[in-house]
Write a structure and sequence with these properties.
heterotrimer, A alpha/beta (about 325), B mainly alpha (about 300), C mainly alpha (about 325), A: Rossmann fold, eight-stranded mixed sheet, 12 helices, B: about 300 residues, MetI-like fold, disordered C terminus, binds iron/sulfur cluster, binds magnesium ion, membrane (chain C), BPD_transp_1_N (chain C), MetI-like (chain C), transmembrane (chain C), cell membrane (chain C)
């Protein structure tokens, strides 16, 4: 890992409480993120990816309804120390949000305020963290819109979100997120709602911007095909837990956890498209309800390597392998052999 | 960005009747939590109990008290409440207030209930025909509904009441005539939605006649919103009765109703305020109870019912 | 925006046509129909009446009569009052100001209070305040307006002596302060139901907006909660309230009628009641049609305002 450590998450756990029931949406998530690095967070819908990222931003609901435990340390943009994000008072946290760590959301259609112009929404962010005159902020917004590849950026300042296409809106969202040069950018399924061709463009844009700024990116997706494009390292999540973590190449070459294997098999592959169009593999069953997780390995009801009497009894820990990978599976040593 | 209550609004020119807005405000979609549901449930229960007490009191009460509502006792005029033999005092003719409130309650509740039944009948019929047939017939009927809703119901009610000989039956009919439109809309919407479902198609295939399909298959499915609308409609009818009677064009004295008891109470506001306060209190109590009951029923019958 | 407004306008015209048909039907239901004026003051013989009926064209087919009646209405000829022989529109016009003043004051009061209560209820959802506001709104919606008026007079005029018990001004005074003094109680009474309606809709609208993605985006920028509320949530939450405002006309008019009666306020509602008691059918019919037109115009205005306020329609 090239750059300095920017983000350190340890034993992050999030639980929601509603009507007496407690849902452990995220538990025991730990990872580190360095400058210039892209970490992909992968998993099916409901596996806790968004909750994890919202916890990093401290954007989850307040205490009685939602509880966040563990520790999140973020490098201070100005000083050299690490900020204890979860302990930061709200006013200080507001100075961190959008400034040190920014976020791009899944739905470009609904994530921008429909009654405010693109320009107003971007300059608002700029002026929130970088005191400057309105005119200067406008020029800066034009520069940013240009940077994210929006044509005729100055005219776009007065456009309303609905006047832009989905792809353009997502670019505007990215421009807004980048406006204060955050050291960490979280992109929560930024391309899921877009057409395939637009998806590719946005991915290219993110890659280019990352090279230019050196920021670290947490890229959330449920599509491993996208991961191969963009990530350095992959963190696979299942039922709120990290189940495998590895660099992108080894993970694709030899997935250790049966869930990762299943995900890989469900990636549409261009080289097979001609022969087996439409016959895409899907992991049978569904993500468990976090209020009633299955005993033992959370994946056992759907696992093709399930060992009765073991997998449904003993909860696997997150093991570290000799080559620096992490995997949460009782049988992984057998798969290496 | 629109919630269910607004879904129909921006794209829909339909104005509401003057009580429609009240009702729509009552009928906001529920946002459920355990506490809220419990609270609604309790308020609805309280509403039901109060309604039961008011009905029983109005119908049985007069047999239990020693005064007749029509007995004039000039020596006992303006006896204040809680001070003598007349528990709730007497009016300007020395008539017992409690007895009058009970007899007035009979009329007001009966008019409210009957008007509800009639207006539901009209509303369901019009809505069902419009919803089932759709097309030009449906559009014409619903535009008629819209047009009637353009007249504030009190204006319409008074204008019509001025044209007829006022009596309990005719006033009840007129109230029903100005209160059926919202029901028609609800039923039309429900049935238009249900019409597309396959069981209606199946019934059609079996050769059932049009009307049989509407009333045997479709209407029962719209029963939850209809029951809720019916409950709220009683509240509306009681209010309307009180308005016209207060203004002098509703139930005519000496027959007491909660509304007409207020008719000339304003004159005695300084000397005998209970004449004004008591009947209004009962109207408010009854209307609030029906509204809370309707609200609770909506929650109980279908927690996901958000189409109003 | 133009096609949208043209369509709304077309719908309004169509509705007005149906409204006028209903009005015409009621007119012919009146005892003596359009002839009532002559039938009531009857020192005329049957022959005279027949002759007048013929002159008025009442022997012609109903559709022809309707078309002619509508044409006269559109031309501003709404007939003359039986009571004082004045043109109906003139009579209505001379009472309209008082009604509009009352309705406008009550509406402003209700919007201010209702929005405030609704917003507070939404951001403190399920708090004690929220429960009280919800229950309070339900009760307010159940109180007969005229009775609330009587109670208000009893408390503020009879008991406390703070406010006048009725009328628009003290005879012989007529200063602005005096008029405002008279306005307080009726405006408050008329505003009660409206406040309840506004608070309910505002709460619901605010709750809706608060859960939108763009609110999360605004928070993710680092905006403090309060600014998220004022800069991002409020404008969006207020938008649908324009439509709500447009739908208030019937409630307001109905409420104004009884409020004016209780407070002897010289507006259109009282005129309507007086006209009914004098059997002044042209004025009764006129006000009925006029109020329906106001309802329609209220809706149309709200649609137009909405189109201006919402960029998605304005530019869409
Ligand atoms: N505000 C919330 N209240 C209760 N449960 C929530 C809330 N947000 C998310 N969850 C639950 O947390 C789990 C993880 O959700 P999420 O992180 O959104 O999944 P994804 O991986 O698709 O982004 C889900 O089971 C979801 O139901
Ligand atoms: S622990 Fe067992 S059930 Fe879980 S992934 Fe490994 S093999 Fe499958
Ligand atoms: Mg997600």
């Amino acid at each position: 890992m090239a750059g300095e450590l920017l983000l350190e998450v340890e034993n992050l756990a999030v639980s929601f409480r509603s009507r007496g029931a407690v849902a452990d949406a995220v538990s025991d998530v730990s990872f580190r993120l360095h400058q210039g690095e892209t970490l992909a967070m992968v998993g099916e819908s409901g596996s806790g990816k968004s909750v994890t990222s919202l916890a990093l931003m401290r954007l989850l609901p307040d205490a009685p309804q939602c509880q966040v435990r563990g520790s999140v340390k973020l490098r201070d943009k100005t000083g050299s120390g690490m900020l204890d994000v979860l302990a930061l008072p709200e006013p200080q946290m507001q100075a961190v949000r959008g400034n040190n760590i920014a976020m791009v959301f899944q739905e470009p259609m609904t994530s921008l305020n429909p009654v405010k112009t693109i320009g107003a929404q971007i300059t608002e962010t700029i002026r929130l963290h970088r005191p400057m005159l309105a005119r200067a902020a406008e020029d800066e917004a034009v520069r940013l819109l240009d940077l994210v590849g929006i044509p005729a950026p100055r005219q776009r300042l007065t456009a309303y979100p609905h006047q832009l296409s989905g792809g353009m809106r997502q670019r505007a969202m990215i421009a807004m997120a980048l406006s204060c040069e955050p050291s960490v950018l979280i992109a929560d399924e930024p391309t899921t709602a877009l057409d395939v061709t637009i998806q590719a463009q946005i991915l290219d844009l993110l890659k280019r911007l990352q090279e230019q700024t050196g920021m670290a990116v947490i890229f959330i997706t449920h599509n491993l095909g996208v991961v191969a494009e963009i990530a350095d390292r992959v963190m696979v999540m299942y039922s709120g837990r990290v189940v495998e973590q590895a660099d992108v190449v080894p993970l694709f070459q030899q997935p250790l956890m049966p869930y990762t294997r299943g995900l890989l098999r469900s990636v549409p592959r261009l080289d097979l498209a001609g022969r087996r169009a439409g016959a895409l593999y899907a992991i049978p069953g569904n993500v468990p309800d976090p209020r009633r997780p299955p005993p033992g390995c959370a994946f056992h009801p759907r696992c093709d390597s399930f060992a009765d009497g073991r997998c449904n009894v003993e909860a696997p820990r997150l093991d570290s392998t000799a080559d620096g990978r992490q995997v949460r599976c009782l049988r992984w040593p057998e798969f290496v052999a | 960005m629109s919630s269910s209550i607004f879904d129909s609004s921006p794209g829909d020119s339909n104005p509401g009747g003057d009580f429609a807005a009240r009702e729509a405000a009552i009928a906001l979609p529920p946002r459920n939590t355990a506490l809220r549901r419990f609270c609604r449930h309790r308020l609805a229960m309280a509403g039901a109990i109060i309604i039961a007490i008011l009905v029983l009191g109005s119908y049985l009460g007069p047999y239990l008290i020693p005064y007749d509502d029509t007995f004039i006792d000039i020596m006992q005029r303006f006896a204040p409440p809680f001070s003598g033999a007349h528990i709730l005092g007497t009016d300007e003719l020395g008539r017992d207030m409690l007895a009058r409130l009970m007899m007035g309650g009979r009329i007001s509740l009966a008019v409210g209930f009957t008007a509800m039944v009639i207006s539901m009948g009209i509303g369901i019929l019009v809505g069902a025909i419009a919803g089932y047939y759709g097309g030009i017939v449906g559009a014409a009927l619903m535009r008629f509904v819209d047009a009637v809703l353009c007249f504030p119901s009190i204006f319409l009610l008074l204008a019509l009441a001025a044209l007829i000989e006022p009596g309990v039956a005719s006033i009840t009919l007129l109230i029903a005539a100005t209160a059926w439109m919202d029901v028609a809309r609800i039923v039309e919407g429900q049935i238009r939605g249900l019409r597309e479902r396959d069981f209606a198609v199946a019934a059609e295939a079996l050769g059932a006649s049009d009307l049989r399909i509407v009333f045997r298959e479709l209407v029962p499915n719209a029963v939850a919103p209809i029951v809720v609308a019916a409950t709220l409609n009683v509240a509306k009818a009681i209010l309307l009765e009180s308005y016209v009677s207060y203004l002098g064009y509703g139930i005519q004295p000496p027959t007491p109703s909660w509304g007409n008891m207020l008719n000339n109470a304003q004159i005695y506001l300084t000397s005998a305020p209970w004449l004004a306060i008591l009947p209004g209190l009962f109207i408010t109590l009854a209307v609030t109870s029906f509204n809370f009951l309707g609200d609770g029923l909506r929650d109980a019958l279908d927690p996901r019912m958000e189409n109003h | 925006m133009a096609p949208y407004l043209i369509r709304r306008f077309g719908q309004a015209v169509l509705l007005l046509l149906v409204v006028s048909m209903i009005g015409f039907a009621i007119l012919h239901l009146a005892p003596g129909g359009p002839m009532a004026q002559y039938a009531i003051g009857s020192n005329m013989s049957q022959e005279d009446l027949d002759r007048i009926a013929q002159q008025l064209g009442l022997d012609r087919p109903l559709p022809v009569q309707y078309a002619e009646w509508l044409w006269r209405m559109l031309g501003g000829d709404w007939g003359t009052s039986f009571r004082d022989g004045q043109p109906v529109l003139h009579v209505i016009g001379s009472h309209l100001g008082a009604t509009l003043q009352l309705m406008l004051t009550a509406t402003l009061l209700a919007i201010f209070l209702g929005c405030w209560i609704g917003i507070l209820g939404a951001i403190r959802r399920y708090s004690v305040f929220d429960y009280l506001a919800t229950i309070g709104a339900m009760v307010a919606l159940s109180i007969p307006t005229f009775w609330f008026g009587l109670v208000t007079i009893f408390v503020f005029s009879v008991e406390l002596g703070w406010l006048p018990a009725g009328n628009r001004e003290t005879v012989g005074d007529g200063s602005l302060l005096d008029m405002l003094h008279h306005l307080i109680a009726p405006a408050m009474v008329l505003a009660l139901v409206e406040t309840a309606i506004w608070s309910r809709f505002m709460r619901s609208s605010m709750l809706d907006v608060v859960n939108q993605d763009y609110i999360r985006t605004a928070r993710a920028k680092g905006l403090p909660r309060f600014k998220v509320l004022t800069r991002h949530a409020l404008r969006n939450a207020l938008l649908p309230m324009i439509t709500v405002a447009g739908l208030q006309m019937p409630t307001l008019l109905g409420g104004a009628l009884v409020t004016e009666t209780v407070f002897t306020w010289p507006g259109m509602g009282r005129l309507f009641l007086d006209s009914i008691s004098y059997r002044d059918y042209p004025v009764v019919m006129g006000i009925l049609m006029f109020s329906a037109a106001m309802v329609l115009i209220g809706n149309l205005l709200a649609d137009m305002l909405y189109a201006v306020a919402d960029p998605r329609i304005r530019l869409g």
